[in-house]
Every structure is written in structure tokens, then in C-alpha cells.
Amino acid sequence: MTLTIGVHSSNPSLYHLYHLSRLGFAQEELAPLGETVVFHPYTNGARTGELLTSGVIDFGGTGSTPPITAQAAGHDIVYTAVSAPRPEHGVLLVPEESPVRTVADLKGSTVHLAIGSWQTHLIAKALDDAGLSYAADITAVRSTDDSERLVRTGEIAAWVAQGERLAAARRTGGLRTLIRTGDVISDRSVFFTRRDLAESRPDVIEALTRALRRADEWAAAHPRRAAEIASADLGGSADDWETALETLPWTIEPVTDAFIAEQQEAADIFHRTGFIDRPVTVDHARARKAADQAV
What we know:
Largest sheet: 5 strands, mixed
Strand content: 15-25%
Order of helices and strands: EHHEHEHEEEHHEHEHEEHHHHEHH
Strand order of the largest sheet: 7-6-8-5-9
Number of helices: 14
Shape: globular
Structural class: alpha/beta
Distance between the termini: 28 Å
Helix content: 40-55%
């Protein structure tokens, strides 16, 4: 069997696993199980549930929002692992001289963010905590390469920045952090697959998790080389990428009740504000035990 791993640049663990595959990462873990590994690069992590269901990929990873929207769309996914929290992964930026001092001050404003990514979770929960609605109280617009300029000129009120773009913006100065990711959500990388694979081949899932841990250990031990890979492939300076990558925990953890509760809170907010059109029970995205499958 050939296992297809989905990879996109927004998931750092899978991104570096992909680039390390030439060194045998992933294949060494899967070969003893009679599996071969190929990678399927794509750009929009929000499509991961669709790609799993259609059989284009067998395994993927994103931030916190795409698996919830995948469940809402009827995709039968199963969580397999998560990263440790990433409190410094991103921030909501406003101009230094902006009158916006709290999230509540954003009411009626335009905010740029990567809609459908973990950034939606961040903004929706921050607004919810302030008694506001993601759907009703701000205008959420998808970020572009022009977002930094627009927030600096005051044409938009705020911008969610992450990674090397955040490092570059901070280096330039002139922007202020309104909220930090870790003050609102845990912001984990999340890994998931189709139910049939999760329940029929737990050995494969365990091997993939080991491969992710190896890739994370390599990135943590070689931050400059990891930064150079990202810079050459995605643009931006290696210095800014190194700054960004050094904020990540590079730790893969099991799916816990606490994580499921975090996701359920996000799902409830998304449904209440209309970001998803039906309620989601996050706990359904767990693998069933063998005894339960037999019933």
C-alpha cells in the first residue's frame, strides 16, 4: 500500500517532514509495516477534510479550525495527534497610534486574517470573550500580501500575523500587539485522517506520529537549516524564519480530553456565529475502540 501524506506550508511539522523525506524520514517508520510513502503538496489547509474524504490524501495536518469545518461539512475524520500549545505563533496587530486598545474596540472594523485557519478560531474566541460576534461585529477579510501595508496606513483596523511575516513586521516596528495567541487559544497543530485508516491500521498512525516527532526533533535541533529551507522555498529572510521557527514547541502530543474540550468550545462559537451552519460534536472525531466497532 502507498500512503499519501498531505503537506502545506502552514503546518510546520508536516512541511519539514516533507523536506526531510529524502533522508528517509517517514519511509523508515512505514517500511517495516509494508507501506511506502508519497507526499501531496497543496496550498489551502482548509481543504484537508475534503482531500481525505475523496482519497487524494490519507493523512493531513492543519491548525485548529479546518478539522471542525471538515466535521461540519460531513467528513468523517479522526484526530491522531496534536502539537503542544503554540502561544507565540501569531498575534493580532494594530498601528502603534491606533485608538483600538481592546478587542471590543474592533466593533465595526475590518480585520485581515487567514479565514478558515486557526486565525479564525483566535479572532472568533477573542470577540466572543468580549461579548461580540465574529459574523456580526467585524468584517473579516482574507489576508493578502498587502495586509501589512493596509494596517500600517490605517485602511484596515487590524491584521493577524504569523511566522516570518510577523517577525519581519516586528523588526520594522510601528505596530502594536493587541492580542497574543496564547492569551486566547492554545493554537495547536492538529493531525487527522479518515476513520477507515485510523481504525483499521492504528500501527500506521503510530508510525506516522513517530515520523512527525523525528521531524520536529530535527527542526528543533537545526533551526537555522530549517529556516533556510523555508526561506528558499517560501520567500522571506532566513533570519526572520529562524525567529519564527524558534517560537514553536516542536513537540507532538496525544489527543486528550482537554484538547477535545478546546475544539468543542471553538465549534460551539463557530456555530453560534454562523461560521459553520450546523453543530459539531468534536468527540465523534475519535477512533472507536475495537469492541465498539464490533457492535
